[in-house]
Specification:
mainly alpha; 10 helices; about 60% helix; about 0% strand; globular
């Protein structure tokens, strides 16, 4: 494993622990940490090419698409055969895209989990906003994505 991968993986795992510790916090804080976990896991994966990923926040969906085509990753996380693995990942992509969009740089002047918006004339604060995403995260499909994220983090050394 390359040093860049290892360091991003350490931070992603730490961010997941923070996500879990924030169980009583406002949803915006948990969404923020979930977005960071997803981004850092993806960047750890793409470090395997020997170059630093760009300073962007939209790597999670690319990561899921990349690993969906790798049956060895499905086997590493215990989801097989390959068609089941591909379908499992495909069923999480829309939610992964919404999570990516929670980064302020991706959200533009729309809802994000970190700063009041819109930027020039704030009318909403994340701490008092009802994020429909939070409802999805707590629904079966969201729990499915969280379980996948945890498995991908736990077993990274087997496929990364």
């Amino acid at each position: 494993m390359l040093d860049g991968q290892r360091l991003y993986l350490i931070q992603a795992r730490s961010d997941l622990r923070a996500y879990d510790l924030l169980s009583e916090a406002a949803p915006c804080h948990r969404i923020h940490y979930l977005q960071m976990v997803a981004e850092k896991l993806a960047k750890a994966y793409f470090w395997r090419q020997g170059q630093a990923p760009k300073r962007r926040h939209n790597y999670f969906v690319k990561f899921l698409r990349a690993v969906a085509g790798r049956g060895d990753v499905g086997r590493a996380v215990g989801i097989g055969p390959n068609s089941h693995w591909e379908n499992y990942v495909a069923g999480t992509l829309w939610l992964a895209l919404v999570i990516e969009g929670m980064a302020p740089a991706e959200a533009g002047d729309g809802p994000n989990a970190e700063y009041p918006w819109p930027h020039e004339a704030p009318a909403h604060a994340p701490a008092s906003f009802h994020f429909p995403l939070w409802d999805e995260i707590n629904a079966p499909r969201g729990r499915r994505l969280l379980a996948l994220l945890r498995l991908l983090l736990d077993r990274f050394e087997q496929y990364g």
